[in-house]
Write a structure and sequence with these properties.
61 residues, alpha+beta, binds zinc ion
Amino acid sequence: MATIVDCPTCGAKVEWTEKNKYRPFCSERCKQIDLGAWAEEKYAIPAVNLPQESDQDKPLQ
Ligand SMILES: [Zn+2]
């Protein structure tokens, strides 16, 4: 009995088997789309170091 998962990209039912090398995706296309989405998300995050952590370390004067 195979485990059925939803393809993260298109929501199609996918059998979680060793034969399905694209799992949890239904196809290579959906896998590529999802990887592309992750890459875009990564680049969308601005590389700015907000000085929030240092505020807690400062002693109150
Ligand atoms: Zn899919």
